[in-house]
Amino acid sequence: MRLDRPKEEIERELLERARETWGEGRAEALRAQIRDAAGWMATLGEHRLGIHDEEPDFLVASERREGRS
Amino acid sequence: MTLIELTAAQAAEKIRRREISPVELVEALLNRIEATEPALEAWETIDREGALAAAREAERQAGMEGVGPLHGVPLGVKDIFFTASMRTTSGSAIFKDFVPEYDATPVARVREAGAIILGKTVTVEFAHHDPPRTRNPWNRERTPGGSSSGSAAAVAARMVPAALGSQTGGSVLRPASYCGTVGLKPTYGRVSRYGVTPNSWSLDHVGVLARSVEDTALVLQAMAGPDPRDATSASVPAGNYLEAARRKDRAPRLGLVPDYLERADEEMAAHCREVAAHLESAGAEVREVALPQSLEELTALRFLIATVEVAAVHSATFSVHREQYSRAIREIIETGHLIPASAYMHAQQLRRRWRPRVEAMLEGVDCLLMPSVNNTAPGPSTTGSSAFQAVWSLFGLPSISLPSGLSRERLPLGTQLVAPSFEEEGLLSAAAWCEEALGPMPAPDAE
Question: N or C: which end of chain A has fewer CB within 10 A?
């Protein structure tokens, strides 16, 4: 799922996933939460990341173990 | 001073000198619980017999060589920490009868230091944000905050001098602020989470709620240090936190973060500005420091990571017990399952990109300064917003909330300090200095 899109598009796609995963009733119950999640994803999607950019943070826990945070 | 008013450090010292009896102290606190618990509902389990038996043993050993720094001191423990032979519900109907076979590492360590576990304090369901039954000791119509709801209420109401809590977003500092206690969240990895029910693996921290900075240092001292059973436990040795909290000779350099003042309600923002001015007049150096990313971006990052991790943590249990989950956490789990792995990894990459920028905020200052929360305690249908505490959980930086005054409605106001990773000594020293400059917090009328 691409994140560099308007949040309305992401929201529609998440809602469709919700219908498939949890059924129509639960998808409706999740509308507000899905809207929030789509907003977060679109906000973060404004920051493009390429192949040579940072590795995910939590995977490099050894730095924290040594106290370098 | 009555026994229930003693701080943990004061009680430990008096027990060591045999000026007070641990049995009398436990009995006084149990009586206090009996008087206040019906109105506040801060406890999930009270271990009356176990605590009294431990107190009798502590009394026998009091004053002997080799007793620990918490010898005979009663503590509360949030009900997500495993306690051997004592129920650990995690605030969930699913685990209402679960009795672990071992103590979580933080519990084992405070016991080794001589503490007596008085019981288990109410947690929000799975330390998330469905409202708890616990009420705020300052006003029964307000939330104590969450998820360390019972720990904060019990400490504020003089049921126990200190209690263990945990924070994934703001679950130590927010209830501390709402209830008028001190709340400390150390650096990610500083205290082992082994035996603590997870919320979100890369965000979970163990913390302390108490009525003085010194007490948070005393309990941290007992808990801190490497633990091979927790993969995220840091290998750096613990500092001398108690000595740091007693060192108040240097006025700190503080970085006031205006981004939070702009988002706080009017009374809280004005209060924080007054606190900053007061600390400056007492000798602190205060300058303004801006967030390197917008609070909205940082909040989005935190929520996306937490939502996916909560869904993963609960995946197996949720598939069997879905109907036994409360509304808010159920919605988070179901939504977390919809977010693709690529979005989660994108967030974790940004977390790495933004971490040095956030840490750079602390260059040239000892601590950041801001309100602990955006408002005073709201009504009991919510546990409040984690927006003001969550950035520091996201980046694992140590933070502390100090009670710094009362609102027009006589509700506690809190001020937050944040320090660089593994700089708990500097944080505690600065907090102790500010605590002294701000003066004592009155007690609530909790009965």
Answer: N
Q: Give B287's strand partners.
A: B255
* Cα–Cα distance measured from residue B181 to residue B438, given in angstroms and rounded to the nearest whole number: 13
Q: Which of B303, B334, B337 sits opposite A40 (nearest CB)?
A: B303
B12-21 tens-digit pLDDT: 999 999 999 9
Task: Give A-chain residues touching B342 at CB under 8 angstroms.
Answer: 1
Write down the pLDDT at residue B141. 97
Angle between helices B22-40 and B48-61 (to 10 degrees): 160
Instruction: Catalogue the active-site residues of B.
Output: 78, 147, 171
CB pairs under 8 A between A and B: 121
CB proximity list for B151: less than 8 A, separation 6 or greater: B42, B76, B77, B78, B121, B163, B164, B165, B175, B209
Sequential DSSP letters for B378-438: --TT-----TTTHHHHHTT--EEEEEEEE-TTS-EEEEEEE--TT-HHHHHHHHHHHHHHH
Residues 6+ apart with CB under 8 A from A45: A2, A3, A4, A5, A10, B346
CA distances from A9 to A3, A38, B53, B344 (A): 10, 8, 62, 18
Per-residue pLDDT reduced to its tens digit, B123-169: 999 999 999 999 999 999 999 999 999 999 999 999 999 999 999 99
Strands in B203-318 per DSSP E: 205-210, 253-256, 285-288
At B285, phi and psi to the nearest 5?
A: -100, 125
Q: Give the separation between CA A13 and CA A27, rounded to whole angstroms.
A: 12
Q: Helix B22-40 and helix B149-156: axis angle, to 10°?
A: 120
Retrieve residue B191's tokens. 């205290």
Per-residue CA distances from B260 to B158, B173, B257, B408 (Å): 31, 15, 6, 21
Predicted structure pTM score:
0.97
The sign one gets for the Cα dihedral A40, A45, A51, A52 is negative
Residue B348, chain A, CB below 8 Å: the answer is yes
Contacts of B348 in chain A (CB under 8 A): 56-59
In this structure, the number of other CB atoms found within 10 A of the CB of residue B193 comes to 26
Model confidence band, residue A14 (pLDDT cutoffs 50, 70, 90): very high
Contacts with A47 from chain B: Cβ below 8 Å: 297, 350, 353
- Other CB atoms within a 10 A radius of the CB of residue A63 amount to 14
Mean pLDDT by 10 residues, chain B (447 residues): 96 96 98 98 98 97 90 98 97 98 98 98 96 98 98 98 98 98 97 97 97 98 96 92 95 98 98 98 98 97 97 98 97 98 96 95 98 98 97 97 98 98 97 97 85
B75 membership: H or E segment, kind and range: strand B74-78
Interface of B with A in 356-385 (CB under 8 A): 359
ipTM of this predicted structure:
0.94
Q: Give φ, ψ of A4 to 5 degrees.
A: -85, 60
Q: How many CB atoms lie within 10 A of CB B340?
A: 16
